[in-house]
Write the structure tokens for this entry.
Amino acid sequence: MRRPALIALALGCAVWAAAQEPAAVLSSDSGHYRQALEGFTEAWGSSVPVVGAGAFLPAGATAFVAIGTKAAARRWPRNSIVVACLAPSIADDTDDTLTRVSLMADPQVLVKHLRVLMPRLKVLQAFWSSEASRQDTEALVKAGEDIGVVVLSERIFPPSRLPERLRGLEDKADALWLMPDPELVNAENFAIMREYAAAQKIPFIGPTEGLAERGATATIAVTFREMGRAAALSVRARLAGRAEAEVIYVRRATVTVNAGAARAVGLSLSSDAADKVLP
């Protein structure tokens, strides 16, 4: 084979390899985003090129993990593969090329954990606000139906209406659940939910581990590292030509219980109900 042909073949192989190697796009250098990136590279098996949300994309790359909403919302090359994680404000119909890793644990896993925490659970009141949370909430309702738990889904819009809605809440639910919706889960609304739950002696379950430290009865959460791992597996599947769902749910969840808050609402726990128990 002549030298020009060899060079052309080498260049072609290099372009193909670049197209098969994903690149990571980060919204910022936040610790949460870095943990997701570490999970991604662990599951991928090697390091990948990393750029900021506003930077030029690596030449030749056609597959990307977008970590954070700012990164996910940028323009992507036509026919590219994009998997977004830690991007809860991205609606599922934003871009046909985009797959989203949910902040919520797999709904079936979530309701099973809830049943272990509260064996008598029959009715769960779930609150959400942003349109991007609609599909996750609908999936949770369906998962509840499958094991005999009624999930009462209610959109709180605008999020400032939460206190008004709680005041009018009928005594139907056995527990309260906040969807991992940044528009709804702010410091003020969290404090209101915590105080309401304590006054009504009803368990309040949160979607991120840190909320248990701040007084939620318990949390059922997915780690940022696990979200990154799920993103890597999805990118690999799509590169191999396998169809992937629009939303990816992580099946491994960590259950954390605040023992003091649990006692305050009359929730007694079995020894295997939680991965972590806070005093």
